[in-house]
Specification:
The protein is mainly alpha-helical and 195 residues long. It contains 13 helices and three strands.
């Protein structure tokens, strides 16, 4: 008689027997939300194994959706390279929030491992006091000069995103001195006539 296994039971059985291929296939068929839901009930020792079996994009999406406490626990069980790869999908303000949660020695190790540009962005945010706009708001933004066409704006967004997973919802319009004079929702830019 076949019995239906829960996600944690299925994971535990495949890890215990070192039969990971079926588990990999199983995880590929799941959404990030389903994986997160399943991980909640998994043994702590099994979570990093599941995480390592995820495809890179799926792993990044799952990590991004975890709460900061879970991210912190996951970080402590992964290698520097794995963590730096995952930190790359977070906005600098989210990177900072995660680093703030970690023990100081772990946070320093990760800061040192970040690429220079990311390290500088996070360091800049660290200069702001807790609970200030500068510390909370993401420095990742897209700006275009007044008079830019929708087509040009979309090309600028593509160039500036350059594969980054940062979510953009607003495009800021600047004058000649780069002072913000307005903001346009991304949806309005995308649906506007190209000219």
């Amino acid at each position: 008689m076949n019995t239906v296994k829960t996600f944690p039971e299925y994971v535990r059985e495949h890890i215990r027997t070192k039969n990971l291929e079926p588990l990999k296939t199983f995880l590929r068929a799941m959404s990030a939300a389903e994986i997160i839901d399943g991980l909640k009930d998994c043994e702590n020792a099994d979570k990093p194994v599941v995480f390592r079996l995820l495809q890179k994009d799926s792993g990044a999406e799952v990590f991004d959706l975890l709460d900061v406490g879970e991210q912190s626990r996951m970080v402590e069980s992964l290698t520097n390279d794995e963590v730096v790869s995952l930190l790359g999908v977070l906005d600098p303000d989210d990177q900072l929030r995660l680093l703030d949660e970690l023990p100081a020695r772990v946070a320093k190790r990760l800061m040192d491992a970040l690429p220079r540009e990311q390290r500088e962005q996070v360091s800049r945010l660290m200069g702001y006091e807790d609970d200030t706009v500068g510390r909370i708001m993401s420095p990742v933004q897209i700006d275009v000069k007044r008079g830019t066409t929708a087509s040009e704006a979309i090309n600028r967004i593509r160039a500036k995103k350059n594969g980054s997973r940062h979510v953009i919802t607003m495009v800021y319009v600047t004058d000649e001195t780069r002072r913000i004079v307005g903001a346009v929702p991304l949806s309005a830019v995308v649906t506007a006539d190209a000219s």
